[in-house]
Amino acid sequence: MSALDDPDGDREARELLHDLVSIPSPTGEEEAAAERLVDFFEAHGREAWLDEVGNVRAPADDAVLLTSHVDTVPGDIPVRVESETGSVSEGGGETAGGNEPDEHEEGPVLWGRGSVDATGPLTALAVAAVRTGVSFAGVVGEEVDSRGARHLVADREAPDAVINGEPSGWDGVTLGYRGILSGTYVATSESGHTSRPEPNAIQDALGWWSRVEERFEHDPYEPTFEQVTAKPVHVEGGTSEDGLSVEATLDVQLRVPPSMTVDEVRELADAEAAAGHVNWHDRVPPVMTSPRGPVARAFRAAIRSAGGEPRLLRKTGTSDMNLYATWDVPMATYGPGDSDLDHAPDERLPLPELDRATAVVEEVVERL
Questions:
Q1: Which is catalytic among the residues 10, 19, 30, 71?
Q2: Which site among 59, 99, 127, 144 is 20 to 30 Å from 253 CA-CA?
Q3: Do both 257 and 363 map to the same domain?
Q4: How far is it, in rounded angstroms, from Cα 170 to Cα 180?
Q5: What are phi and psi of 118, to 5 degrees?
Q6: Is 71 among the residues known to form the active site?
Q7: Is the pLDDT at 47 greater than 60, yes or no?
Q8: 142 is annotated as an active-site residue
C-alpha cells in the first residue's frame, strides 16, 4: 500500500498534492496545474474556471475566501514519497521571533518543487474549500509580481474573511509581513580619463547605496521584522556605446516594517541620491493583523483542538496577504510546511502535516 492510500491519512489531499507537485508550474507556466485544480473542483460539483490572467476561480460562500498561489520557483526536484521519521522545523527563514523546531513528524514525506511553497498550502485550502463550501482562488505570479492577486483584488468584491496559503507549519499562523519597495538607481556622467578625481556614474551609484545602507543599518538587538532591510539585487555600469559617457544602474529592494510606510522609506532613500535618480517601480505596503481578530482566534482554537500549541508568526518577507489587506477584512496566512525549505533543493513536505493542516483549515472555516 502506498503512502497516498494510507487509511490513516487524508487520501484525497495527498493525491491532489502529488498530482500538483508532479506538474511543473514555475511562474508563467501555471496553466496545466491550474487546469488540474479546475478539474478537482468540477469533480466535486463546484463551478470553476480560469480567468483572464490565469487564476483559478471557484466562487461560493464568501464568508471565507481560501486562496494560495499556483506558481513555484524553477527547479527540478524528482517527485517521490519516502518513508521518513525525523525532526521537522516549522519555523522558516522569514520568521521573526522565537520559532524553534519542536515537532517530530513521523510518516511519509513527499519531495518535489512546490511541496512547501506553496503547493502544500494550496492543496490544503483547495480540499478544505470543497468540503466546507466556501470560495477559493488559486492565483498566479506570486513569485514574481503577484499579478494574480492584484487582478483578484481589482476584479471581485471583498469577502468577509481571507485565509491566504503559505507555509507556516500546521500549528503556526502568520499575522504579519513586511512590505517591499523596489527601484532602479540611474546615473550618468561624462566619460574621462580614470586619473581624474571627479566621481563617475558608477561611483555615484555605489555612493548612493552606501549611504542608503548606512541609513538603514541593521540593529542586531532589534527584531528584523521591525527594521528596514536594504538589498542590492543587480548592478550594471561602464562606458556607453558611443564612448561619451559612463552609465550605471543599480536595482534594489527595501523591505518595509509595519512601523513605517512605503512612502517614508522611499523619501529617506531619495534623500540620499546625489547625481543620479531612482525610478521606483514596485511598492507593496506592510501588513499586520490583530491576534485578537476572528480569523486568528479561530486558528488558535482549531490548532488546540488538534492537539497543538498555536504559534503566532511574523514574516520578514512579503506575500499576497499584503495585497489582500486592501480589502480591510479579517485575515491570516496559514499552511503546512517548513518555510526554511522554500525554494530549496531539498524541498519536501511530511504528508501527516498536510493531513493535519487540512483538518485545521476545515475547522477554522466552520468556526468562522
A1: 71
A2: 99
A3: no
A4: 27
A5: -130, 35
A6: yes
A7: yes
A8: yes
Domain boundary pick from 284, 312, 332: 284
Among the listed residues 346, 341, 349, 364, the one whose alpha carbon sits nearest the alpha carbon of residue 16: 349
What mean pLDDT is predicted for residues 161-183? 98
Number of H helices, E strands in the chain: 9, 17
Residue 250: its pLDDT value, please? 97
In a shared domain, residues 171 and 273: no
pLDDT at 83: 85
Q: Which residue range forms the structural domain that includes residue 68?
A: 3-178+287-367
Q: Could you tell me if 262 and 329 lie in one domain?
A: no
Model confidence at 193, pLDDT cuts 50, 70, 90, reads low
Residue ending a domain, choose from 284, 311, 326: 284
Single out the catalytic residue among 10, 90, 105, 142.
142
Surface-to-core class of residue 138, CB atoms within 10 Å of its CB (0-12 exposed, 13-18 middle, 19+ buried): buried
Report the C-alpha gap between 134 and 259 in whole angstroms: 34
Answer yes or no: do 18 and 147 share one domain.
yes
Same domain membership, residue 7 and residue 142? yes
Locate 57 and state its grid cell: 476561480
